[in-house]
Description:
The complex is a heterodimer of chains A (533) and B (313). Chain A is of the alpha+beta class and 533 residues long. Chain A has 16 helices and 21 strands. Chain A has helices at residues 3-13, 29-33, 55-64, 112-125, 127-134, 158-163, 175-178, 245-253, 268-272, 303-312, 315-323, 358-367, 384-399, 411-417, 465-476, 480-496, and strands at residues 35-39, 69-71, 77-79, 82-87, 93-98, 136-143, 146-151, 195-197, 207-212, 236-240, 259-260, 277-281, 287-293, 330-331, 374-380, 403-409, 431-437, 501-506, 509-513, 516-517, 531-532. In chain A, helix 4 (112-125) crosses helix 5 (127-134), helix 10 packs antiparallel against helix 12 (358-367) and helix 15 runs antiparallel to helix 16 (480-496). The longest helix of chain A has 17 residues, at 480-496. Chain A is globular, with a radius of gyration of 25 Å. With 313 residues, chain B is mainly alpha-helical. Chain B has helices at 2-29, 34-39, 45-54, 61-73, 87-122, 127-141, 144-158, 174-208, 211-218, 223-260, 266-276, 279-307. In chain B, helix 5 packs across helix 8 (174-208) and helix 11 (266-276) packs antiparallel against helix 12. Chains A and B meet through helix 1, helix 8 and helix 14 of A and helix 2, helix 3, helix 5, helix 7 and helix 8 of B.
Amino acid sequence: MNRRDLLKATLAAGALAGTHGLSAPALAQGAAARTLRFVPQANLANFDPIWGTQYVVRNASAMVWDTLYGVDDQLVPQRQMVEAEEHSPDFKVWTFRLRPGLKFHDGEPVLAKDVVASLARWSVRDPMGQMIRAIQQELVAVDDRTLRWTLREGFPKMLWALGKTNTPIAFIMPERIAKTDPFQQIGEYIGSGPMRFVRDEWVPGAKAVFQRFDGYVSREGTGSWLAGPKRIMVDRVEWTVMPDPATASAALQNGEVDWWENPISDLVPVLRRNRNIMVDIADPLGNIGSFRMNHLHPPFNNVKARRAILMAMSQEDYMRALVGDDDKLWKPLPGFFTPGTPLYTEEGGDILKGPRDLDAAKKLLAESGYAGEPVTCLVAQDQPITKAQGDVTADLLKRLDMNVDFVATDWGTVGQRRAMKNPPGQGGWQVFHTWHAGADCVNPASYNAVRGTGDNAWFGWPKSEATEAAIARWFAAPDLEAEKLAIAQVNRAAMEDVVYAPTGFFLTYQGWRRNVSGIQKGPLPFFWGVSKG
Amino acid sequence: MLSYIVRRVLATIPVMAVVALFVFSLLYIAPGDPAAVIAGDQATPEDVERIRASLGLDRPFLIRFGEWAFRILQGDMGNSIFTNLPVTTMIAQRIEPTLSLMALTLLLAIFIAVPMGVVAAWKQGTIIDRAVMVFAVLGFSVPVFVVGYLLAYVFALELDWLPVQGYTSFSEGLWPWLENLILPAIALGGVYIALIARITRATMLEVLSQDYIRTARAKGVGQRGILFLHALKNAAVPIVTVIGIGIALLIGGAVVTESVFAIPGLGRLTVDAILRRDYPVIQGVVLLFSFIYVLVNLAIDLAYTLFDPRIRY
C-alpha cells in the first residue's frame, strides 16, 4: 500500500466513514492488472484511418481493424487475413483467399465483398493505392472468401502496398462502412482486429478505450509488428491524452500510467533515474528531418541556390537542436532513405559529408542570381521539431548573408500556407520544415516528399525527371538487387536536383513501467503481446 | 427586480449575437486550414482541396455564417469537423471538470482571500499585513503552470498524497472527485486569492477609517463585530465586483491548469480546437463562455442588493 492508498483508507475509515457516497471506489488489483494505461503521442481526434491520416489514428486503428498483409520487423509483408494468394507471372492478376472464420466485432463474417469495398476506398487516398487504381481493370469478389484484382499493367509491389505500415494502411472494414466516401468520415467503428473500440467512453482530446475482442481469430506462430499472432494479454487498453510532457512524465513515475509513447529527450534522464521505469528507443526506423524549399520561386527555383544550402548546412546542428546531447539519438544522413534498412544508400550524398564550406556556398548562391531578396521561412512554433529546425535554418541563412523573413506561426497555418503556390510576397513561401517517419522512407512507395513530379509533387513542387525515372525503375524491379540499384539512382538524382534537404536522422524514446512486458520497437505501438504484471 | 432580471436576460440576446458574429468573422479571416490537418503530412494538395470542399469550407462567408446562425437559433451548434460528434455532446463531456475546477477554486479563493484581506487591513503595517502582501505579490507574479508543477512535484511525486493528473466525476464519490482537483484548484487559485485579498484589504482600510466605524467602537462593539459585521458588509460591493471580473481570469487560467494536470475540461477542448481550426467547436465554446460570463455579471449585479439596500433595480 502506498501513501496515497493509506491516506485514502484513513479518510475513508475516519471522517468520511458511514457516508456511503463519499468512499473512494477501490479498483481491484486484478482489474488494474488487466487494464493497460497508455499515453499516446497525440490526441485521437477522429477515428477513420482512411479519412484522417495522422499517425495517432493509424496507431489506434491497428488494434481495431485488421489487414490482409502485415510487414514484420524485417520489412517483409506477411499474410495476415489472407490464407493464400497467387498472381500471374506478369503481376497483372492477383487473387487472394481469406482465412476461414474471420469475424467482425458485430459478429458478422468477414467476406470478400467487405475486402473489395475496403480496398476501393483505401485506393482513393493512398499513394500506392492510387497507382494501382490508375491501372485497375477490375476488383471483384469471386466468392465469399476469394477476391481478384486485375490490372492493365504488372504491379510487383502489391503485397507491400497491402501490408505496409505507412498511413493510410489498407484496413478492412465491413462493406456498409467501407462504402463511405473516402473524403467523408465514417460513423461506425466496427473492425475485425484484436480489440474493439468502446465508443461510449471516447472523449476526444482526453480518453479512448479499447476492449479485447474475444472473437478474434489470431494467426499461429511467432510474429512481429503487423505480422503474425495478435494476442491481446489485457482486457482493456486505455489511452489518456496528456498534452504536457512533464505531466506525462510525472504520471508515469507515479504509476498512474503504464506506457508513454514519446517521452521528450529532456525528460528521459529523469525517467531513467526511476528504478520502476524502463526507457528504450521507440522506433528503430526513426525519423528524417526535412528542410523543404519552394522550387517555383527565386532563389530556390535555381538548383545552384538549393545546392548552396546542402553545401552549407550542418546536420549536426539540426540534430543537436532536436535531440540535445544524446548521441545515440541521431546520425548524419547523406541521403533520403532510412538508415539500417535494406535499400539505404549514400549514393550521391557527398555534398552533405565533411566540413561545411560557407564561402563556397555563398559563391554558389551568388551564381544563382540571389541578390538579397527576402526569403520567407515558415516556422511552426507549436511543434518542437519544426521550431528547432527553423531556428537553425534562420541562423544558417543569415550566415549565408540571406535576408530571412522569419514567419513564426503555428502548424495549422503552415499546413494552409505551404499549399499556396503564389510568390512569397503574395502569401507564398520559400522554406518550411517538417519531418518524415523513417517507416515512410524505406522505399519510394509512400514517400511523397522524395517525388519530383513538378506541379503534382508534394509542397515545394520539385521537378526532377531523373528521380522519377529511377522511381519507376524501382516499382518495376523484380528483385532486391534491382531495387537497390534503382534506389541508388533515386538518391543520386534527388540529391543533384535537391528535391529537398534532409537535416538528419533522429530517433525517439518510449518509456514504460517495469511491470509491463512485451513492448516491441517499431513504427507504431503494438499492443498485442503486451502484458502487465 | 423581476422585470430587471427579465430585461437583463433579454439583453444577453444581442450581446450573444455580436459575440457570434465577431467569433465567426475572426475565425474566417484567421489563417489555418482544418483540411490540411485532417489530410495529414503525406496528402497531396488535391486531397486537401477535396476534403475542404467536403467540409463546405470553400463556400462564401455569408452562406456559411447564415447556415451556422440558423442552426444556433435552433439550439444546434453543429458537429466537430474532426470528431464528427455534435459540439453539444463534446461540451457536455467536458463541462463538469471545468465547472468543478472553477467552483472549487472560487470557494477556496473566497474562504482564504477575504479573511486574509480583512486581517491584513486590521493589522495594517504589522508583519501579518506584510506577509499577506508578499503572498499577494507572489500570487500575481508566479505563473499558474509553475505553481502547478511545484505542487505536483511535492504532493504527488515526493509525498505521494495526491494524483498527478486526471479527473474523476463527482458521481464516483466525493474523495475521488476532490483528490484530483485539490492541486489544480490551489494552482489556479493563487492569482485569484491574491487579487481578492488585495482588494479586500484596500477596501477594508478605507471603510475602517469611516466615522461610523469609530462610532461603533465608541458604542463598545467588539473587534470581530466591527470587522465582519460593520466593515466587511460595507466593503463587500467592490469585493464582489472583483470576484465577478475574476471569473474571466479563472476561465483563462483553467486552460493552462487543465493542460498541466491533464484534466479533460473545456479549456483543453478550446486549445485543441484552436490548434486544429475546428471552427464549430471554437464557436460553440466561445459562445458558451460568453453566456456564462454574462450570467455571472448579472448574478453579481443582483448580489449588490444583498450588501447595499440602497441599490434598487
